[in-house]
Amino acid sequence: MKVSAWITLAFPALLAGCAIGPSAEQQAALVADARKASATLIQTLGGELKTALAEKGPEGAISVCKERAPQIAADVSKQFNFGTKRVSPKNRNPAGVPDAWEAEAQAGLEKRLAAGEKPETLDTWQIVGTPGGKQFRYAKALPVQPLCLTCHGDSATIPDGVKARLATEYPLDKAVGYRPGMVRGIVSIKRTL
Ligand code: HEC
């Protein structure tokens, strides 16, 4: 192939890859994948949490949140080729602090919730520029359900055994005082493009 032909062919691809970013179709595919990944995380973790609560009680179920949640997030990350984690402005795990994009995303989702959107389907995404290149970012709201209150509700309603374990394992815990329907945190997903 002549060099001029190569340049003509390659140049639009370079533009699409670097300067302009992913096409509308590519973006739609990223969002669809992120929705699948977050649903997989939520369903797997939720299922294990329900089983553990029924079989081991709330104190025993703490280990699902502590050990299984990060493992499931790692599995989902591998399966879908994303970075996947759970974060919250009122975090329990010290590593669960949101970055600026995540904090803004959750605040936006909370506004949409207040404006009447259903909590179950609240999500948002963006292509952002970073020093390392363009990045796809996605956030899915984690609404508080009645079953979350055992460990994230008002301090008075959390069983004593759970309170004691949380106090030992998470001395800096901020993740209490929630009511059903509030946004507990987000599933945060990203991929460098
Ligand atoms: C059995 C107790 C228990 C129940 C029930 C529970 N959680 Fe948690 N949750 C925890 C613990 C413990 C952690 C800290 C996990 C860790 O060490 O990473 C946590 C962490 C989280 C985090 C990560 C951010 C942070 O604060 O560290 C989110 C988000 C979260 N929980 C949401 C929920 C939601 C939504 C529900 C209900 C569907 C729920 N949790 C039910 C105990 C519980």
Characterise this structure.
The protein has helices at residues 3-20, 24-80, 100-114, 149-152, 160-169, and strands spanning 83-87, 123-130, 133-143, 183-192. The protein is α+β, with helices and mostly antiparallel strands and 193 residues long. The protein has one domain (23-192): Beta-Lactamase, CATH 3.30.450. It starts with a helix and ends with a strand. Mean pLDDT is 91; it is low at 1-18. It binds heme C. Residues 46, 49, 58, 61-62, 65-66, 69-70, 86-88, 91-93, 96, 142, 144-145, 147-148, 150-152, 175, 184-185 line the site of heme C.
What is this entry, summarized?
The protein has 193 residues and is α+β, with helices and mostly antiparallel strands.
Shape: globular
Calculate the terminal CA-CA distance, rounded to whole Å. 29 Å
Query: Could you say what the CATH topology is called?
Result: Beta-Lactamase
Strand content: 15-25%
The largest β sheet comes out as: 4 strands, antiparallel
* Overall mean pLDDT: 91
- Percent helix range: 40-55%
Using DSSP, what is the number of strands?
4
Q: How many DSSP helices?
A: 5
Category by helix and strand content: alpha+beta
The distinct bound ligands, ions and cofactors come out as: heme C
- Strand line-up of the largest beta sheet: 1-4-3-2
